[in-house]
Amino acid sequence: MTEGWHMTARQQAILTAIIENYIETGEPVGSSTIARLQNREAAGMSPATIRNEMAELAEGGFLEQPHTSAGRVPTAQAFRMYVERLSGGSHPRSDANLLTARSRQQIDSNFVGVAGTQAVLERTSHVLATLSSGVGVAIASAREGDLLEHVHFSRLAPASILAVVVTKSGLVRDRVLALDRDLTSVELTTASNFLNENFRGWEVEQVRSELARLVERERSEYQKLLNSVQQLWMKAVPASDTSASSVYVEGVANLVASNIDGDRLREMLAALEAKQRLVDLLNAYIDAHQESVRVVFDLEEQAPQMAGLVLIAAPARMAGESRGTIGVIGTTRMDYENTMNAVSYLSRVFDRISLHPIEKAASNGL
Q1: How far is Cα 112 from Cα 109, in angstroms, rounded to an integer?
Q2: Residue 172 β-bridge partners
Q3: Distances (CA, A) of 22 to 9, 18, 27, 85
Q4: How many CA atoms are closer than 13 Å to the CA of 187, on its beta-carbon side?
Q5: What b/e sequence results for 309-336 when a residue is b if at least 16 CB atoms lie within 10 Å of its CB, and e otherwise?
Q6: Which of 19, 42, 74 is the last residue of a domain?
Q7: From residue 89, how far is each of 81, 92, 258 by CA, in Å?
């Protein structure tokens, strides 16, 4: 932008109209299009006046002109300014409270019957992808070396067990296990009691090695119990799952529908499929202590394959504590206002949804 250049209220109104029209259509915007728009501050100006103002905006670095079109498209600098206006100023247009009643109802209906941190995060990625036409991402808070809080096993059917493992950070892993042999409810209670009494406060990844050591050492009736405990634990917490965050991604197909070059699209999709890269990306930009939604345009600084994409994300909170990060990754043409409002609303959804019964007991110190 030219040093000392100041945008007038009229130029700001024209630029806002151009950005919103471009988001809606994906086509370069001409002065005649802006002149035809009604119910905007820019309405009533002649195409010639608008054309002169657009030339000034282009000189200031807010508009650029594709070679094959007479219209203009917003630059990254223009989108940044637009987002700043949405989220700041005396009359911000971006807030969870500004989400339409229809969107609130759509969100709330999607969470009926959903309980537990993981289930909520998984549903959140789906809802965000649907609302934004971008890629919905939800990542549970999980740290390497997370400590075991509570284990519970329930018999669903012969040789079919529901296992729930709760960690100190609030992460809940629940899985249906297919066992080699059936276990009675008494055996399952004994197994969970053994783990809770002997391994509460242990690092999750250390439980496996200690169980293997105990099984190797014992040659008695006690070993029958240890064998059952070991089998249940290995299936409930697979080795590949002990230090990884739970990552939910949905809506990647939405990018395919956008006008992105094929080679670049393949790079973007590959980056989105690398879940650890997504974890690193969100951790780099989203602070668990921040109170508001953050919009990031420079994703290529952390992941070159993400050039041209925008991240809108926020920490997901429950009782004031971060349970993870949720957000949307999309093109610059996303509906910023609606997406920011939706992310803000969903970031607080955990306080309105019941916990998994086992998770609730853990959070109460039971």
Answers
A1: 5
A2: 166
A3: 20, 6, 6, 17
A4: 17
A5: bbbbbbbbbbeeebbbbbbbbbbbbbbb
A6: 74
A7: 12, 6, 31
d(C-alpha 124, C-alpha 247), whole Å: 11
Give the pair of three-digit tokens for residue 339. Answer: 């997406």
Cβ atoms of 132 and 309 within 8 Å: the answer is no
User: Which CATH number does the domain housing residue 39 bear?
Assistant: 1.10.10.10
pLDDT digits (tens, 9 = 90+) for 58-69: 999 999 988 766
Beta bridge partners of 329: 135, 311
Query: For residue 167, what are the domain limits?
Result: 148-241
Torsion of CA 313, 360, 248, 161, to 10 degrees: 180
Same domain? For 218 and 276 the reply is no
pTM for the whole structure: 0.67
**DSSP letter, residue 156:** E
Cα separation, 191 vs 194, in Å, equals 5
Query: In this predicted model, what pLDDT tens digit does every residue of 298-322 receive, in sequence order?
Result: 888 888 888 888 999 998 876 666 6
How many CA within 13 A on the CB side of residue 193? Answer: 7
56 domain-assigned: yes
Nearest partner of 125 among 137, 133, 116, judged by Cα: 137
Are the C-beta atoms of residues 107 and 358 closer than 8 Å to each other?
A: no
